[in-house]
Design goal:
The chain is an alpha+beta fold and 139 residues long. The protein contains three helices and six strands; from the N terminus they run H-H-E-E-H-E-E-E-E. It has a six-stranded antiparallel β-sheet, with helices on one face.
Amino acid sequence: MSRLDIARDEVLAHPLHRACELELLHAGEGTSELRFQVNDFTTNPLGALHGGVLYALMDVACFFAAVPLLDDHQAPVTVETHNSVLRAAFKGETIMLRGKADRIGRTLAAMRAEAYAVNAEGEERLIATGSVTKSIMTV
């Protein structure tokens, strides 16, 4: 089993990620793509996708963009994140998260993420952007 497979199984088993029904679609070459559906667990009291859930899962997208670029004894750990929510997404919509490693250095990784809501017709609209800095830890 590869390091990515192990990381995938461990990260997606986290109770938060299970409750969000998070799925990893792709991870490799400094990019990742994940998806989840806006459900009762991920909405705020107004029925829209909760910003905190979105921030957390955008961070996970950056994690999966970084892992394939690291050695087996390295792990990416978030030290800073900035996110902007541009518009709302609602229950029943699918959210696509795309992570990208802009630069992986010896001790830090500069990452970015975008979140798109996909409606019933399959049309995507950008709902959030973010940047994440991860420390490259030796494990």
